[in-house]
Give the backbone structure.
Amino acid sequence: DAYVIGGYMEIVDVDKVGMNAMSKFDPIISKQFSTYCIKGSAIRIKGVHVINAPKEAYTALNIIRNLFPASIKERYFIHRKMEDLYKYVPKEYLPIEYGGRNGSLPELAKKHEQDLLDFNYYFKENDKYGVDEHLRQGQKMDMNSIFGLEGTFRKLDID
């Protein structure tokens, strides 16, 4: 419940992501993901923090950032230095590998896996429920308008 109410903050380390991989990025998928985050997810995004971005990737990441609606764009940050991240995320919440004091990444992964296993009963119970779309009243949902790339790009701000 705290996760749904409080939201989450995502930290994306692009240190090992090469320009070859970045060149294969699909802006339509980015648009679809932002639509899902705003309209489809029950969990609020408090922020997306990209760290360790090489100079070459900085421009590409800013272009990606500009594909998001304003509500997401204002929570999307690209940090050139780890010290900039610490202004948003206290060190006590970060793993040791990122200068924090919250254990190592393998320890945190193991704890997270155990947390999921502890809630296994809930996931099995939840699988019993669903939605019968034939009973939904009103206009049918058009997946192209929800997840398609509509409109035009009139202005892209590139820093």
User: Anything to note?
Assistant: The mean pLDDT is 82. The first strand starts at residue 8 and ends at 13.
